[in-house]
Amino acid sequence: MKTVIIDYGSGNLHSAQKAFEQAARLESITAEILVTSDPEAVRKADRVVLPGVGAFADCRRGLDAVPGMIEAMTEAVFQNARPFLGICVGMQLLAERGLEYETSRGLGWIAGDTVRIEPRDPALKIPHMGWNTLSRKRAHHLLEGIPESLHAYFVHSYHLKTTNPSDIVATTDYGGELTALVARDTIAGTQFHPEKSQKLGLALIANFLRWAP
Amino acid sequence: MLKKRVIPCLDVKDGRVVKGVQFVDLVDAGDPVQSALAYDAAGADELCFLDITASHEDRGILMDVVQRTAEACFMPLTVGGGVRTVEDIRNLLLAGADKVSIMTAAVKDRNFVKEAATKFGSQCIVVAIDAKRVTAEGEAPRWEIFTHGGRKETGINALDYAREVTALGAGELLLTSMDRDGTKSGYDIELTRVISDSVSVPVIASGGVGTLQHMVEGIRDGHASAVLAASIFHFGEFSIREAKQALAQAGLSVRMD
Predict the structure, then answer these.
(1) 3-class SS of residue A117
(2) Residue B14 catalytic?
(3) ω before B8 within 30° of 0 (cis)?
(4) CA dist A52 to A145, A190, B107, B120, B164, Å?
(5) Mind telling me how many Å the CA of B186 is from chain A's nearest CA?
(6) Measuring CA to CA, which residue among A69, A85, A88 is closest to residue A184?
(7) Which residues have a Cβ under 8 Å from the Cβ of B9 and sit 6 or more positions away?
(8) CA–CA dist B228, B209 (Å, integer)
(9) Pair A72, A124: CB distance under 8 Å
(10) E strands of chain A, at which residues?
(11) CA B111, CA A32: separation in Å to the nearest integer?
């Protein structure tokens, strides 16, 4: 089984790759984890991961700069029904639009916009940075077997505000509800960083590697 | 609810931990990667490497250390010390650092903060502030920025500087009291509170921890989002868990995963 992590010049893919390998090893899942910027590899992959660090518009430009990548991702997900996981800005890109610094187009796979966090309590710091718990809105394979008491690592100033509440799997509380995990069909995305979230993160990655939607 | 963070900090020189971690039976207490793994297992919320290698030419060793740590530890890692250029930041992030801490380069050229934040995002740019009390008798408390381990004064007001670098895109401030660093007499709470209350980003309190109560004070009274400590953890005086229990007992919420 081949899982690709898309390399489009955003963030550290090496540690993400190691986290996926570690999760597979701990759960005895046979998985080949490949970091790639080759659309052909994405098209043929069994699972696709889109990481993302930085600003929305920058990431979008980075993705656009790899010829044929968005087409390959779209084909993998919508024609071949491959499981897809967006992480952090990789999740935010699923939205229709991003409103960070400038308005830019997202992939539009999840209805909604990526907007700035506006906590009710103005004393709360932005970015929302550190460990927080998840509040589950519905069951999903990615959270199976993960105790509710575990924490996930977040670092972000924007979040995906979905149009359809049914796309939200889990939220986190920071002066109001922030979207933490979205999913629809074979598409999923986490605002937090599973590759930095120790127990919860490795368990979620293992669940993704076993996910057969 | 977002938890308060406990961050152990390791000084790394030429790829080795200075004052090795002694709280567990490490085969090699001087290996930063083994120390990092031990803290990962102990429940640290993040880890901080401060590179104090004298020569900029020897950065390759640090990159190797960061890379090996990131491969083994699935928790956030901040790396600082001698970060001077956008290229330095890029290399550290590519090696596996999640956040990069900049100090002298930001003091010399504030625009560097903006450039770095624009390129890599505020979330990975930490500005380290070494502040020293310069209040004359009868004056309201005032702190100034010092560089070179507190030896070199800059004449820059610490509060103004904190506000300025935050506006330029720093995502977090690592605030060290040079008066308290190494004294074990507790954080400079007044400094921590003045800065924390004046900026919109999280502040990490640093410098002076001697007891667990000092950590409680840093968060409860200093309003810091995270507390950083080195020697009390390295020498096994207190464990990460004990620190978190002390915070929890004081009514502060911590992660006990």
Answers:
(1) coil
(2) no
(3) no
(4) 26, 11, 29, 11, 27
(5) 24
(6) A85
(7) B47, B48, B49, B50, B206, B228, B229, B230
(8) 8
(9) no
(10) 2-6, 32-36, 47-50, 84-87, 97-98, 104-105, 112-116, 128-133, 135-136, 151-156, 158-162, 168-173, 177-184, 187-190
(11) 43
**A195 noted as active-site residue:** yes
Interface residues on A facing B, Cβ-Cβ cutoff 8 A: 11-12, 14-15, 18-19, 22, 53-55, 58, 125-133, 149-151, 153-157, 173-174, 193, 195-202
Q: How many CA atoms does the CB half-sphere of B62 hold within 13 Å?
A: 30
Q: Does residue A88 have an active-site annotation?
A: yes
Cβ neighbours for A192, distance < 8 A, ≥ 6 positions apart:
A88, A132, A152, A153, A154, A172, A180, A181, A201
- Name the β-bridge partners of B8: B229
Determine the distance from the C-alpha atom of residue B149 to the mean position of all C-alpha atoms in its chain, rounded to a whole number.
Answer: 14
pTM (global) more than 0.90? yes
In the structure encoding, which two tokens stand for residue A114, read together? 């990526």
- Ordered per-residue pLDDT tens for chain A, 213 residues: 999 999 998 766 888 999 999 999 999 999 999 999 999 999 999 999 999 888 898 899 999 999 999 999 999 999 999 999 999 999 999 999 999 888 999 999 999 999 999 999 988 999 999 999 999 999 999 999 999 999 999 999 999 999 999 999 999 999 999 999 999 999 999 999 999 999 999 999 999 999 999
**Within the 196-255 window of chain B, which residues sit less than 8 Å (CB to CB) from chain A?**
200-202, 225-226, 255
Residue B13 to residues A180, B20, B58, Cα–Cα distance (Å) = 38, 11, 10
- Please name which of B96, B98, B91 lies closest in space to residue A130, comparing C-alpha atoms: B98
CB contact under 8 A, B255 and A55: no
Nearest to A81 by CA among A111, A42, A46, A107: A46
CB atoms within 10 A of CB A105: 14
